[in-house]
Structure to design on (189 residues):
């Protein structure tokens, strides 16, 4: 079932602004749990009660519903949450953005969808890793290509090892196709 087509029209009428406290706390945990459990009834109940701001709630692990949906490569929930206004740049507690989560999961369709929403392609997590660095590490050539086309910087270094996506690609002899994509993007002067 395509959530975006089934649920979105009804939600457009029901969603109202909610206070900031709806973004976190017990109801936030419940909302992310409903997304995690694919419990559309519970998610809709919370959306009706709390409004659109609950879309950006974090659970006790610091994950948002959007990141949960992306990590499990769930097209319906990802599309639904984005269509309803989930923040496409909102990071989890560890700093992983939805785009980093898409790179980590190898979820090319979500990466493309997020890029179309003009997300920050060079946003870094707490380790300084960008979506491009993660895509290189995960050997996700299609996502590397998307990110480079969107202007991701292959020379931005992480804080974990001090390497850039270009450095990681050079070190991994198993993915010469990724290195070719990155080498085609000349370093900034």
């Amino acid at each position: 079932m395509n959530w975006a087509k089934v649920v979105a029209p009804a939600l457009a009428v029901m969603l109202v602004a909610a206070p900031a406290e709806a973004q976190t706390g017990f109801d936030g945990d419940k909302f992310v749990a409903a997304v995690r459990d694919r419990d559309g009834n519970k998610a809709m109940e919370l959306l009706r009660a709390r409004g659109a701001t609950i879309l950006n709630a974090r659970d006790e692990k610091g994950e948002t519903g959007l990141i949960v949906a992306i990590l499990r490569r769930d097209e319906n929930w990802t599309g639904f949450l984005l269509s309803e206004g989930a923040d496409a740049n909102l990071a989890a507690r560890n700093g992983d953005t939805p785009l980093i989560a898409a790179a980590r999961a190898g979820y090319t369709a979500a990466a493309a969808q997020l890029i179309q929403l003009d997300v920050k392609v060079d946003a870094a997590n707490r380790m300084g890793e960008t979506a491009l660095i993660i895509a290189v590490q995960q050997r996700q050539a299609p996502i590397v290509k998307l990110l480079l086309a969107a202007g991701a910087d292959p020379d931005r270094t992480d804080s974990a090892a001090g390497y850039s996506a270009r450095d990681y690609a050079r070190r991994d002899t198993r993915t010469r196709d990724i290195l070719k994509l990155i080498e085609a993007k000349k370093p900034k002067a």
